[in-house]
Amino acid sequence: MPITSLTVRTKKTWLGVAAASALALSLAACSAGSAAAPADDAPAPAGDGKPETTELLVGITPVADQASVFIAIAEGFFEDEGLDVTAQPAQGGAAAVPAMIAGDMQAAFATYPSFLLAQSGGVGINIVAEGVRGNEESNGVYVKADSGIESIEDLEGKKVAVNTLKNTGELTIKVLMEEAGMDVSKVEFLELPFPDMVPTLQSGGVDAVWLVEPFQTAANEAGAKKLFANFSGPTAGVPLSGLGMTADFVKANPNTTAAFIRALEKANALLAENPDAAREIVPTYSKTTPELAAKIMLPEWVAGSAKAENLEVWNEIMVDQGAIPAPVDLDAMVYVPGK
C-alpha cells in the first residue's frame, strides 16, 4: 500500500513528495546503556522565542487518528510558527519512536505505550501533544463472518494480529480478555502491518485482526465481522495516542518545541470542533478514497494540552500486563512550556 509523505511549503496546500518506505527499527535496538538520560528537574523554558530548529521530520502511521499533523500542515499552522514539517510514514509508533531516538526524526506520533516503553528503558521522552481518545466506534477486533467465532471467549487458542506487539492493540485486548475470565496465555498474538490484516484474515493466516480507521471501514466493506471494540468496558475512553520528542531535543530546542505544540493544539481544536475535517485529509496521506473516508468512524479529538493524570491508566495497564516493570513518572514526561 503506497503511502505519500507530505511537506508544507505554502498555506492550505497539500504537496505530495516521493513515497516513503516503512521503517523497520525496533525498540529492542535501543538499550538503556546507549539511551539518552531523562531530562533533569529544571523548569521548562517558556519557549516563546525564535525556533532553534525549523525543519522537522515527524514519524506517523497512515491512520485517521493522526490527522492532526496533516491538518496543521495543510492549514499552515506549522508555517505560521516558522516550522517546515514533513510527515514520514512508519508501521507504527513502535517503529517511529526508535527512529526518533536515533535522531532520524525530531518527533513521533505514537500510541502512549510506545513512549512509556522507551521511558521505562532509560530513554528520556517528553510527550508534547495529545492525539486522540479511544472510543467504541473507531476501532475493533474483526473476524471472518463465517468463522464461527461469536464472542471474545472464542478467541482462546486462536491467532490474533496487531500492528505492533506489546502495544495498544495487544494490551487492550488482553485487558478485555482477562475481564471475560480468559487465559490470555492461550492466545497467540502476531504482528502485521494494518494494510495486510484483512487479506491475511481472508486467507486464513490469522483468526482475528485488530483494526483502526480507515482499515476498519475497509474490513466492513470486505464483509468481515466486528467482534468487539478495544476501547469499551474497563478500557473505555482511554487516551490512545500523542506526539513525543526526546527530552534531549526538547531541552536543546525549547522554542521549536513550543511552536510545534502551539500548531498541534490549533489542529486538535479544529478537529475537536469539526471532526469531519479528518475525512477530507485522510485520503491525502493514505490509500483511502474520498468515498471510503466518508464512511469511517472517527475517534475523539480534544482541545488543549496533554495531561499526565489522563495517562496514568497506561501505567496501570502496562504494569499489570508485564509490559513495563514499574510505573514511569508521567509528570516528568508530559512537557508544558514554562512549567
Automatic annotation (TrEMBL):
Belongs to the bacterial solute-binding protein SsuA/TauA family. GO terms for cellular component: periplasmic space. Coiled coil: none annotated. It comes from the Bacteria. Residues 1-31 form the signal peptide. It is found in: Periplasm. Residues 67-278 form the SsuA/THI5-like domain. Keywords: Signal. This is NitT/TauT family transport system substrate-binding protein. Pfam families: NMT1. Its main location: periplasm.
